[in-house]
Amino acid sequence: MGNRAQSGRRHINPIDLIVVILILALGAVGAYKLLGSSASGGEKQSVEVTYKVKVEGQDLRTYESLKKKVPSQLMAGESLYPGYVVDATTEPCTFFTVDDDGNLVLTENSDLVNIIFTIQCTLTNGAVQTNKIGTQEIRIGKSHIVKTEYFELTGDIISMDWPE
Q1: Which candidate, 53, 49, 94, places its Cα nearest to that of 70?
Q2: Furthest-apart CA atoms within the chain: distance in Å
Q3: What's the rounded Cα separation, in Å, for the pair 117 and 28?
Q4: Is the model more confident about 74 or about 40?
Q5: pLDDT tens track for 3-23
Q6: Where are the domains of the chain?
């Protein structure tokens, strides 16, 4: 029976070492994806965006009432978002009619106006890449709900200004 001298050191099985390294690597990747770049000490990314939403065919009294509550913070459900309706203006509401000769004629409806909202918001982290404020994508031509504590109307995004 040969006695081996014990040196007091343990040997790690190479396969066990590989498994431990893989588990740590997967955990790090998962944490990065869940927490974003802030998990790796990255700075918070943000961008200021200004966009306009046109809501067509509204009663002038609706505009006069909501104008008193501008500026107003955006919200969805019961949550406030980092964006504000900073201005609301009107333009005449027009539509086409057919005259007696069968020609299309642009006609103004004096009882209705189009409301144009100017909205400024701060997009942070993932919202910068997805162009989202809350759950709504911000893209020219897209339908958009303008909702604050005081009013809620739906229109279309007609312009956007992104910083260079």
Answers
A1: 53
A2: 119
A3: 44
A4: 74
A5: 555 556 677 788 887 888 888
A6: 12-43, 46-161
